[in-house]
Specification:
The chain is an alpha+beta fold. The chain has one domain: 2-Layer Sandwich (Alpha-D-Glucose-1,6-Bisphosphate, Chain A, domain 4), CATH 3.30.530. It contains four helices and seven strands. Strands 1-7-6-5-4-3-2 form a seven-stranded antiparallel beta sheet.
């Protein structure tokens, strides 16, 4: 199943992309389920992350690796893929792109996921979509809206 979300923010794509670090990762965590970041190496190929989802009555770890990263004259990106995921996921591929668009840039979350069962993949869609749509106002608060005076405007 695919999820594709774009968020326009103020700034130059390279400056915005440079802030995709542990602090941003923690700021973007949705309120539910609560998560604890156990490891964050960065956003370069080979870097890994480990988070613990604190679900009601159980905890699940999500271990992933950055498998690709790059940049050109108009965008920067990296891809994270799931290595060991919570019981409800069997596949995870998330491409994070920051692309210049005139005097501002666009943050793109391009996600493909699968659950162990096709019916569960479909059932999870509203929750998975909401987890990433939650980031849109946070991105704008952190980086500013297009046409705003500066970062955080």
């Amino acid at each position: 199943m695919k999820i594709y979300l774009e968020t326009e923010v103020a700034g130059n794509f390279q400056d915005v992309f440079a802030q995709f670090d542990q602090s941003l990762f923690e700021q973007l965590a949705p309120p539910f389920p609560p998560v604890e970041l156990l490891r964050f190496d960065g956003s370069r190929p080979g870097d890994e992350y480990l988070i613990e989802l604190k679900l009601p009555l159980l905890q699940q770890q999500w271990h992933g690796r950055i498998t690709e990263a790059g940049a050109n004259d108009s965008e920067c990106w990296f891809v994270d893929e799931g290595l060991r995921m919570p019981f409800f996921l069997a596949f995870w591929h998330h491409r994070h792109t920051v692309r210049q668009q005139g005097d501002h840039c666009v943050i793109i979350d391009d996600i493909e996921y699968r659950a162990p069962f096709s019916w569960l993949t479909v059932l999870l869609y509203p929750t998975m979509w909401a987890q990433f749509a939650y980031r849109k106002p946070l991105y704008r608060k952190i980086f500013g809206r297009p046409g705003s005076v500066g970062v955080g405007s």
